[in-house]
Write a structure and sequence with these properties.
Number of domains: 2
Largest sheet: 8 strands, antiparallel
Oligomer: single chain
Strand content: 15-25%
Order of helices and strands: HHHHEEEEEHHEEE
Radius of gyration: 52 Å
Number of helices: 6
Length: 271
């Protein structure tokens, strides 16, 4: 339909152009086609042109609808999800047990390794030293290797300016960083007889109570300090230590009238 309409419009336009040219020739040169013939050709051409235009316009909606339908079909094809491939299932041996690999927490692995190596997990020697240097003004010598051993010792000490009580700490380290044991002392033997026992005990309670709150994996600083303050007065008989366990660390209080020691070591240590 659209092709035929195109031809009719084309023939109509061509006939109209020819009629117009012949009319100009007749008007100017007084020769050529007769006026009647020119008007006939022009009328026929206009008729063909009009018929072609009408046929072309009537075919436009059909073409538009077809184009819209084609566009919708193409869009639907492009947006439809592709069918997922069918997964292949491999046969499982009856003797095998399907299981997912366990997830590994690096922190948990590190903690387990420390405990298995006889170390206090979650604390470094530097943590102990920095806290005691800042709060009690202890001065540490720095780690030094123990002859014939892979261990290191690091000592820090200070004299309490008000009472003369010697406050000290010895850290037994592995690879000069990780803590195997830590021992804290409040030694008042040098001022025994000059310093009342209750004043000495107050200094020892403050120093050892603070030292017990140092953080490690599974620590409970409040519980540790409460335990020290409650039992420090009882730990005054040599050879009769008092112990407790908090997390994976064993606390031990021992001493005499003018000396108290607090030791921390991992509970898995056999030494």
């Amino acid at each position: 339909m659209a092709v035929l309409a195109g031809f009719l419009v084309l023939f109509g336009m061509a006939g109209a152009v020819v009629a117009l040219v012949m009319m100009i020739v007749q008007f100017v040169f007084k020769r050529g086609w007769a006026k009647k013939r020119i008007w006939t050709v022009g009328a026929i051409s206009l008729a063909l042109f009009a018929v072609g235009m009408v046929m072309g316009v009537s075919s436009v909606p059909d073409g538009y609808e077809a184009g819209q339908q084609a566009a919708r079909s193409e869009k639907a094809a492009s947006t439809s999800p592709a069918s997922p491939p069918t997964p292949s299932v491999e046969p499982v041996n009856d003797n095998q047990t399907a299981s997912e690999p366990p997830t590994t927490d690096k922190a948990s692995v590190g903690k387990q390794k420390d405990e298995e190596s006889g170390l206090i997990s979650g604390i470094l020697a530097a943590d102990i030293k920095l806290n005691l240097e800042k709060s009690w003004k202890l001065k540490f010598t720095g780690p030094r290797p123990v002859p014939g051993s892979k261990e290191y010792l690091d000592d820090g000490k200070v004299t309490d300016p008000d009472t003369g009580v010697q406050l000290s700490c010895t850290i037994t380290e592995d690879t000069a960083t990780k803590v195997k044991y830590a021992t804290f002392r409040a030694d008042g033997t040098g001022v025994a007889g000059l310093l009342p026992a209750e004043i000495y005990l107050a200094v020892a309670k403050g120093f050892l109570g603070f030292s017990s709150t140092l953080p490690y994996d599974g620590s409970d600083p409040a519980k540790a300090k409460e335990w020290v303050e409650k039992n420090i007065s009882k730990a005054n008989q040599p050879g009769k230590p008092i112990t407790t366990t908090i997390g994976q660390v064993e606390f031990t209080l021992a001493g005499g009238k003018y000396i108290r020691l607090l030791s921390l070591k991992p509970v898995r240590s056999s030494e």
